[in-house]
Amino acid sequence: MSHKSKRMRESDPLFVWPWMGIVANVPTEFKNGRYVGESGTKLRDEFTLKGFNPLKVHPLWNRNGHTGFAIVEFNREMDGFSNAMKFERHFEAQHCGKRDYYNTRQQRGPRDDKLYGWVARDDDYHHKSIIGDHLRKKGDLKTLSGKETEDNRKTLKLVSGLVDTLKTKTKELDDVRSKFDEINVSLNKVMDQKEEMTEFYNNEIKKMQMREHDYMENIVKDHEKARLELEAWRKKLDDREKGLQKRQAQNINERKKLDLEKENNEKAIMEQKMADEKMMHLAEEQKKEKEKLHRKIHELQRKIDAKQTLELKIKRLRGAVLVMKHIGEDDVEEKKKLDALKMELQDKEEEMERIEQKHQELVIKERRTNDEFQDARTELISGIRQTTTARAKIHVKRMGDLDSYKPFIEPAKRKFSGDDVHIKAAEYCSQWGKYLRDPSWHPFKVVTDKEGKSEEILNEDDEKIRILKDEFGDEAYEAVTTAVKEINVYNPSGRYPIPELWNFEKRRKASLKEGIEHLLKQWKLRPRKPRG
User: Fold this and answer.
1) Which of 56, 130, 193, 501 lies 20 to 30 Å from 430, alpha-carbon distance?
2) Global pTM exceeds 0.85
């Protein structure tokens, strides 16, 4: 090595980077055929307590076990270099530096239990030992001035990047201002639309209340008419009784018949009265439930309107906060406005949470009311099923069921004849009924329209659907596809038919009102059986 290169090396020495320190003479002992020593975690904790702030400590091991050396890793930045030099000066102050370690080894005296430590440099890096191997594998050589030059270059690059980012953020701020103005105009339009919707909703509620009022009046009139008819019939019987008394009729059979008719009429009047009271109680309960539901719906709508209004305010406040953040960071007055906006935004968000909680409570109440209506509908289905014939206009339909093998008769005729036709048609019907109850058969696909709304429709390319259409004809196709659509709506998981109140005349689900009216009509038409 020339004197010039030696002077350069002394003036600007080469260090291993990332900055690393070397610890020598780590205490070891021989156990189970190999040397063991202190863990890297324990050494790291000791050096941390001394203020060196190492990142990691790696003990060096070879085939014989712990070598007694460890590598200490420091932060890559300049504070890491300062900690490394502090680490080295600490050991030099205790005469446990690099020079002290090698002098001790040359003297070959008895081994002491002191730790030696120094900062790794180029001679350690090039040393042909396990230390040099580790340093060459994990690091590189750099001068302090070279590292500072590199850091300065990175700093300049970072500043340049920040300048470009500032320009980009300025442009984004302008875009945000523009979007804020657009959003503000849009929010005003939404507020106007909301007011129109509220007015329309209030008008519809009034119309619904008027219809309910007229409906109850009609029910009362019908029952009053029936009561008057029964009263007139009783008066007629009384007149006949008086006539018989005047004529002093001796016909015992006629007298018994009259008494029996009077008794039956009295019982019919009592039954009618009880039915009227029961019906009026049911109608009154239904009216109360509907009024309660209307109030809950109105309250829910009011809460939704308040929630929407609050959401609009929160969006507007957030937009204002975003703009104020970019505009008034250095302006005291603007900063005060920004803090006020933040406080108002926090209050609105807390109010929003309270409204959300109330909204959830109303939703739970509405679900309970819906459950009660569903229970009433279930009871009505049970009553109509017991009292109404299958040919009635309002009756119970098993949704998702093939209730007849008639659609399969024509396909069966193409292959069979005689009594075998009906037998085979019944087998076809049974087979497709099993397909309907099979959870693995789901002949549907999801399509999305231009507005992004998704809808589940029948998959005409399904193998069974193609077979049904090509081999069994239109009538069987219509019956099976209708059933599979019904079961997909009413019971897609259980795959068994569900009873539903059905208006067969209008081919739709019957309302609770239609079911009650039908049940009352059936009761009125029921023949009176004489008792005696």
Assistant:
1) 501
2) no
